[in-house]
Amino acid sequence: MLTSQRDLFALPEDTHYLNCAYMSPIPKTVADAGMTGIARKQVPSQIMPEDFFTDSNRARALFAQLVNTPEAQRIAILPAVSYGMAVVAHNTLFEAGQNIVVAHEQFPSNVYPWHVVAQMHGLEVRTVKPPVRLHRGDEWSTRILEAVDRNTVIVASAPVHWTDGTCFDLEAIGTRARDCDAAFIVDGTQAVGAMPFDVERLKPDALICAAYKWLLGPYSIGLGYFGPRYDGGKPLENHTFARVGSEDFRNLVNYSDQYRPGAERYDVGEHANFVLTPMLIAALEQVLRWNLDEVQQYCRTLTAELFVEAEALGFGFEREKWRSAHLFGLYAPESVDLATVFARLRERKVFVSLRGRALRISPHLYNNATDVAALVEVLRAESR
Predict the structure, then answer these.
(1) Which domains does the chain carry?
(2) 356-359 contacts: CB < 8 A, separation 24 or more?
(3) Cut 0.90: pTM above it
(4) What residues does 330 pair with on adjacent strands?
(5) Band (357; pLDDT cuts 50, 70, 90)
(6) pLDDT tens string 78-98
């Protein structure tokens, strides 16, 4: 089983960073890859034409391995989740009277695009609210299933809810979407890299992930898997490297009307970023060294006593079956002011997030018992 991997990171000993769902610290190897990339750009004669493709294809292959798809050409290099969702919106046919299903308070990048296309095409956005209780995961997934019908064109979901880690039954939701011929679109940012995700089993039509959270990569780069539904689509941009034959720099003015195969056509312009892409590769290589079931088990074991203590102090949380181990919310009793707790945590150098009514905790392998103890210390002091 995995043990603490703190030595792979540069976190100060007195910093208790339980906030990977906000932004991960990058491993030392990822920082080194970025510095090497910067140095390389200082002497650009080192950058050959083939380098515009080699690193990008390596990143595709690593991400394909991580999410279990044999087709690396189905992976696009993206700058953000919003960009990937825009690709989906740009390549989905909509008809007035259709509907789009989303979860209540889903992350904005997986909501705003659907409101825009709904206004443009006369669609209904069905926002599925959870039951008004702490133990809501099972019924929330059931409500999403019930909201999908033959007029649903997109089901936009995530493995876990970004505010409190409530798990969704993605397998059932994806099956229901396919039964209704709806596109099944998943924002995997708060899960992929921390828990297993199997494209072959879950069969999303698109899976979009930012790299700066659980993939342990830099900001402003991400990855997207696009399934057969989006074969032959039109990219958002018309840059050079989206076209067939762009490897041949001598003949770039022999313009081509043919896009590159698979999802490569959906790459963002200048995707061959000579600083960010090597960092992304190093991050993916590190994530792939770990068994993600063991990452979940490590986080679950690390925080077991936290839940015992939190419950004794009156905090509420989702049942273990329906919450992720790497991201979860603690709901404070009415007698506790979460804003004050948050301020006290910062003073103690304990870093978490406030999301809605939840104190969001998101540990990873760089955390240890000392980090959790510091969190519990503040919760005890502020709950008296």
Answers:
(1) 6-18+291-382 (3.90.1150.10), 30-288 (3.40.640.10)
(2) 356/105, 356/163, 356/164, 356/329, 357/331, 357/332, 358/163, 358/164, 358/329, 358/330, 358/331, 359/315, 359/329, 359/330, 359/331, 359/332
(3) yes
(4) 359
(5) confident
(6) 999 999 999 999 999 999 999
